[in-house]
Protein backbone atom coordinates (compact mmCIF):
# COMPACT_ATOMS: atom_id res chain seq x y z
CA UNK A 1 0.00 0.00 0.00
CA UNK A 2 1.18 3.51 -0.76
CA UNK A 3 -0.46 6.22 1.29
CA UNK A 4 -0.05 9.37 -0.78
CA UNK A 5 -0.36 12.67 1.09
CA UNK A 6 -0.63 16.02 -0.72
CA UNK A 7 1.31 18.55 1.27
CA UNK A 8 2.43 22.13 1.68
CA UNK A 9 2.98 24.22 4.76
CA UNK A 10 1.06 22.13 7.30
CA UNK A 11 3.96 21.21 9.61
CA UNK A 12 1.82 20.81 12.73
CA UNK A 13 -0.53 18.43 10.95
CA UNK A 14 2.30 16.37 9.49
CA UNK A 15 3.92 16.08 12.92
CA UNK A 16 0.71 14.48 14.23
CA UNK A 17 -0.16 12.51 11.11
CA UNK A 18 3.11 10.60 10.69
CA UNK A 19 3.38 8.98 14.17
CA UNK A 20 -0.39 8.35 14.21
CA UNK A 21 -0.26 6.51 10.89
CA UNK A 22 3.00 4.71 11.64
CA UNK A 23 1.45 3.11 14.70
CA UNK A 24 -1.43 1.80 12.58
CA UNK A 25 0.63 0.70 9.61
CA UNK A 26 3.39 -1.01 11.58
CA UNK A 27 0.75 -3.12 13.33
CA UNK A 28 -1.11 -4.05 10.15
CA UNK A 29 -1.07 -7.78 9.43
CA UNK A 30 -2.67 -7.97 5.98
CA UNK A 31 -0.41 -5.57 4.11
CA UNK A 32 2.80 -3.59 4.18
CA UNK A 33 2.67 0.14 3.61
CA UNK A 34 4.70 3.22 2.86
CA UNK A 35 3.74 6.85 3.38
CA UNK A 36 4.59 9.13 0.46
CA UNK A 37 4.48 12.84 1.25
CA UNK A 38 4.28 14.85 -1.95
CA UNK A 39 5.22 18.44 -1.22
CA UNK A 40 4.44 21.36 -3.48
CA UNK A 41 7.40 23.71 -3.18
CA UNK A 42 6.39 26.56 -5.46
CA UNK A 43 4.12 29.51 -4.66
CA UNK A 44 1.47 28.65 -7.24
CA UNK A 45 -2.02 27.84 -5.97
CA UNK A 46 -2.14 24.48 -4.23
CA UNK A 47 -2.85 21.57 -6.56
CA UNK A 48 -4.02 18.59 -4.55
CA UNK A 49 -4.92 16.39 -7.52
CA UNK A 50 -1.63 16.82 -9.32
CA UNK A 51 0.29 16.03 -6.14
CA UNK A 52 -1.73 12.82 -5.82
CA UNK A 53 -0.87 11.86 -9.39
CA UNK A 54 2.80 12.51 -8.68
CA UNK A 55 2.66 10.32 -5.56
CA UNK A 56 1.12 7.56 -7.65
CA UNK A 57 3.72 7.92 -10.41
CA UNK A 58 6.50 7.73 -7.83
CA UNK A 59 5.20 4.56 -6.17
CA UNK A 60 4.14 2.34 -9.00
CA UNK A 61 5.58 -0.75 -7.33
CA UNK A 62 2.69 -0.71 -4.88
CA UNK A 63 -0.42 -2.79 -5.52
CA UNK A 64 -2.92 -0.27 -4.23
CA UNK A 65 -3.08 3.34 -3.14
CA UNK A 66 -4.69 5.55 -0.55
CA UNK A 67 -4.92 9.26 -1.32
CA UNK A 68 -4.97 10.79 2.14
CA UNK A 69 -5.36 14.35 3.42
CA UNK A 70 -2.89 15.21 6.16
CA UNK A 71 -5.62 16.64 8.40
CA UNK A 72 -7.59 13.39 8.72
CA UNK A 73 -6.68 11.00 11.55
CA UNK A 74 -8.38 7.58 11.35
CA UNK A 75 -10.13 6.29 14.47
CA UNK A 76 -11.19 2.88 13.08
CA UNK A 77 -8.63 2.38 10.34
CA UNK A 78 -9.10 -0.22 7.64
CA UNK A 79 -6.49 0.17 4.94
CA UNK A 80 -6.62 -3.46 3.84
CA UNK A 81 -6.43 -4.12 0.10
CA UNK A 82 -9.23 -2.90 -2.18
CA UNK A 83 -10.14 -4.07 -5.66
CA UNK A 84 -12.13 -0.99 -6.67
CA UNK A 85 -12.17 2.73 -5.87
CA UNK A 86 -13.25 3.01 -2.24
CA UNK A 87 -14.08 6.15 -0.29
CA UNK A 88 -13.11 6.03 3.38
CA UNK A 89 -13.76 9.51 4.78
CA UNK A 90 -17.41 8.84 5.54
CA UNK A 91 -17.70 9.87 9.20
CA UNK A 92 -15.62 13.01 9.46
CA UNK A 93 -15.46 15.24 12.50
CA UNK A 94 -15.45 18.48 10.47
CA UNK A 95 -18.67 17.34 8.76
CA UNK A 96 -20.37 16.63 12.05
CA UNK A 97 -19.13 13.03 11.94
CA UNK A 98 -20.77 12.43 8.59
CA UNK A 99 -20.22 13.08 4.90
CA UNK A 100 -19.81 16.56 3.44
CA UNK A 101 -22.64 15.52 1.09
CA UNK A 102 -23.94 12.24 -0.30
CA UNK A 103 -21.57 12.07 -3.28
CA UNK A 104 -18.51 13.23 -1.31
CA UNK A 105 -15.43 11.36 -2.56
CA UNK A 106 -12.59 13.40 -1.01
CA UNK A 107 -10.38 13.34 2.08
CA UNK A 108 -9.32 9.70 2.07
CA UNK A 109 -9.90 7.54 -1.01
CA UNK A 110 -8.38 4.22 -2.01
CA UNK A 111 -7.75 2.89 -5.49
CA UNK A 112 -6.57 -0.37 -6.98
CA UNK A 113 -3.96 0.15 -9.68
CA UNK A 114 -6.10 -1.05 -12.56
CA UNK A 115 -8.96 1.35 -11.88
CA UNK A 116 -6.63 4.30 -11.33
CA UNK A 117 -4.89 3.64 -14.66
CA UNK A 118 -8.22 3.22 -16.43
CA UNK A 119 -9.46 6.65 -15.30
CA UNK A 120 -6.07 8.24 -16.14
CA UNK A 121 -5.68 9.29 -12.49
CA UNK A 122 -6.83 12.69 -11.28
CA UNK A 123 -7.08 15.73 -13.56
CA UNK A 124 -3.94 17.88 -13.17
CA UNK A 125 -5.62 21.17 -13.93
CA UNK A 126 -7.57 21.92 -10.76
CA UNK A 127 -5.75 24.77 -9.03
CA UNK A 128 -6.69 26.00 -5.57
CA UNK A 129 -9.44 24.52 -3.46
CA UNK A 130 -12.31 22.34 -4.65
CA UNK A 131 -13.88 19.99 -7.19
CA UNK A 132 -10.93 17.71 -8.02
CA UNK A 133 -12.42 14.96 -5.87
CA UNK A 134 -15.82 15.31 -7.56
CA UNK A 135 -14.00 15.07 -10.89
CA UNK A 136 -12.26 11.81 -9.99
CA UNK A 137 -15.59 10.28 -8.97
CA UNK A 138 -17.07 11.31 -12.33
CA UNK A 139 -14.13 9.71 -14.10
CA UNK A 140 -14.90 6.40 -12.42
CA UNK A 141 -18.57 6.59 -13.32
CA UNK A 142 -17.86 7.60 -16.93
CA UNK A 143 -15.45 4.68 -17.31
CA UNK A 144 -18.04 2.31 -15.87
CA UNK A 145 -16.11 1.58 -12.70
CA UNK A 146 -18.24 0.92 -9.62
CA UNK A 147 -17.17 2.74 -6.46
CA UNK A 148 -17.58 1.71 -2.84
CA UNK A 149 -17.52 3.28 0.58
CA UNK A 150 -16.16 1.96 3.85
CA UNK A 151 -17.42 3.69 6.98
CA UNK A 152 -14.14 5.32 8.06
CA UNK A 153 -14.26 7.57 11.11
CA UNK A 154 -11.82 10.49 11.03
CA UNK A 155 -10.78 13.18 13.50
CA UNK A 156 -10.20 16.50 11.73
CA UNK A 157 -7.23 18.72 12.48
CA UNK A 158 -8.17 22.39 12.52
CA UNK A 159 -6.84 24.84 9.94
CA UNK A 160 -7.70 28.15 8.34
CA UNK A 161 -9.11 28.21 4.84
CA UNK A 162 -8.82 31.04 2.36
CA UNK A 163 -10.66 29.98 -0.77
CA UNK A 164 -9.78 31.93 -3.91
CA UNK A 165 -13.23 32.33 -5.39
CA UNK A 166 -11.99 33.02 -8.89
CA UNK A 167 -10.04 29.76 -8.96
CA UNK A 168 -12.87 27.89 -7.27
CA UNK A 169 -15.32 29.10 -9.91
CA UNK A 170 -12.92 27.99 -12.63
CA UNK A 171 -12.74 24.57 -11.00
CA UNK A 172 -16.53 24.35 -10.84
CA UNK A 173 -16.74 25.39 -14.49
CA UNK A 174 -14.16 22.76 -15.49
CA UNK A 175 -16.06 20.09 -13.61
CA UNK A 176 -19.33 21.23 -15.14
CA UNK A 177 -17.89 21.16 -18.70
CA UNK A 178 -16.53 17.70 -18.07
CA UNK A 179 -19.85 16.38 -16.77
CA UNK A 180 -21.92 17.95 -19.56
CA UNK A 181 -19.85 16.29 -22.25
CA UNK A 182 -18.49 13.17 -20.59
CA UNK A 183 -16.20 11.10 -22.75
CA UNK A 184 -13.17 8.84 -22.36
CA UNK A 185 -11.34 11.26 -24.72
CA UNK A 186 -11.76 14.17 -22.33
CA UNK A 187 -10.40 11.97 -19.53
CA UNK A 188 -7.31 11.18 -21.59
CA UNK A 189 -6.64 14.89 -22.23
CA UNK A 190 -5.81 15.62 -18.57
CA UNK A 191 -4.40 13.12 -16.12
CA UNK A 192 -1.56 10.64 -15.63
CA UNK A 193 -0.92 10.63 -19.37
CA UNK A 194 -0.20 14.40 -19.38
CA UNK A 195 1.48 14.64 -15.96
CA UNK A 196 4.65 16.78 -15.89
CA UNK A 197 6.59 17.62 -12.75
N1 LIG B 1 -3.10 20.82 1.78
C1 LIG B 1 -1.85 21.26 2.22
N2 LIG B 1 -1.57 22.58 2.21
C2 LIG B 1 -2.46 23.51 1.79
C3 LIG B 1 -3.72 23.06 1.33
C4 LIG B 1 -4.01 21.73 1.35
O1 LIG B 1 -1.02 20.46 2.63
O2 LIG B 1 -2.14 24.71 1.81
C5 LIG B 1 -3.37 19.38 1.69
C6 LIG B 1 -3.53 18.71 3.04
O3 LIG B 1 -3.17 17.36 2.95
C7 LIG B 1 -5.00 18.88 3.29
C8 LIG B 1 -5.57 18.59 1.91
O4 LIG B 1 -4.61 19.15 1.02
O5 LIG B 1 -5.47 18.00 4.27
C9 LIG B 1 -6.96 19.17 1.64
O6 LIG B 1 -6.97 20.58 1.83
P1 LIG B 1 -7.84 21.26 2.98
O7 LIG B 1 -7.59 20.52 4.28
O8 LIG B 1 -7.53 22.70 2.97
O9 LIG B 1 -9.32 21.03 2.49
P2 LIG B 1 -10.57 20.58 3.35
O10 LIG B 1 -10.60 19.07 3.24
O11 LIG B 1 -10.37 21.00 4.77
O12 LIG B 1 -11.71 21.22 2.68
C1 LIG C 1 -15.72 20.64 -3.07
C2 LIG C 1 -14.91 19.42 -2.76
C3 LIG C 1 -14.74 19.29 -1.26
C4 LIG C 1 -16.09 19.27 -0.58
C5 LIG C 1 -16.05 19.14 0.91
C6 LIG C 1 -17.05 20.55 -2.35
O1 LIG C 1 -17.82 21.68 -2.59
O2 LIG C 1 -15.92 20.75 -4.47
O3 LIG C 1 -13.65 19.49 -3.40
O4 LIG C 1 -14.03 18.11 -0.93
O5 LIG C 1 -16.84 20.42 -0.95
O6 LIG C 1 -15.41 20.20 1.55
Q: Could you spell the SSE succession in H and E letters?
A: EHEHEEEEHHEHH
Number of strands: 7
**Portion in strands:** 15-25%
Low-confidence stretches: none
How many separate helices? 6
Shape: globular
**How many angstroms does the end-to-end distance come to?**
23 Å
Bound molecules: uridine-5'-diphosphate, beta-D-glucopyranose
Q: Could you report the average pLDDT, rounded to the nearest whole number?
A: 97
Give the C-alpha Rg: 16 Å
Description of the molecule:
This protein is an alpha/beta fold and 197 residues long. Helix content is 32%, strand content 21%. The chain is built from 6 helices and 7 strands; from the N terminus they run βαβαββββααβαα. It has a 7-stranded mixed β-sheet with strand order 2-1-3-6-5-7-4, with helices on both faces. Helix 4 packs parallel to helix 5. The protein is globular, with a radius of gyration of 16 Å. The chain starts with a strand and ends in a 9-residue tail after the last helix. The mean pLDDT is 97. The protein binds uridine-5'-diphosphate (UDP) and beta-D-glucopyranose (BGC). Beta-D-glucopyranose binds next to helix 4.
Amino acid sequence: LSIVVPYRNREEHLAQFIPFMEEILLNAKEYTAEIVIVEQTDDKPFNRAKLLNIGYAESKDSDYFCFHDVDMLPLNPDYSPVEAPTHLAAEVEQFNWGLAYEGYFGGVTMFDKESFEKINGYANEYWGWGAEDDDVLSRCLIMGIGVFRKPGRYRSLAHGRAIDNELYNKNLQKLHNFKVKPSPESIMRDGLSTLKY
